[in-house]
Please model this.
Amino acid sequence: MKTLKLKDGDLCFENNEMQMVEGDKELAQSVAMILQTRKGEFQLEPEHGMERENLLGKAFDEELLRYDVVEAIAQEERISALEDMAVIDDLKSRQRKISLVLKKEDQEVLTIEGVDLA
Model:
């Protein structure tokens, strides 16, 4: 699959031309977009995205976040399983990121580093 390349939610341009992304980079971008979208935020597809209640707050529970991530990535048909997940908290900037190791439907591994969930 091939789609428009995004960086921080913005289209990427080079020499006044929109950049495209494909292969594992496109799949990683698709997964990141699902995780960064609040479930119910996209009116045309209200089930798209991830629940955010277990993501932030003082009573953070990594297992509940893991459940939400598994549920969210199930929306991407090309991913068959979550193999590993690491939560990275930056206390200075008050940001939470996750890194994922995913198994694709073809049984190959896809690693996605530092998806910003704030």
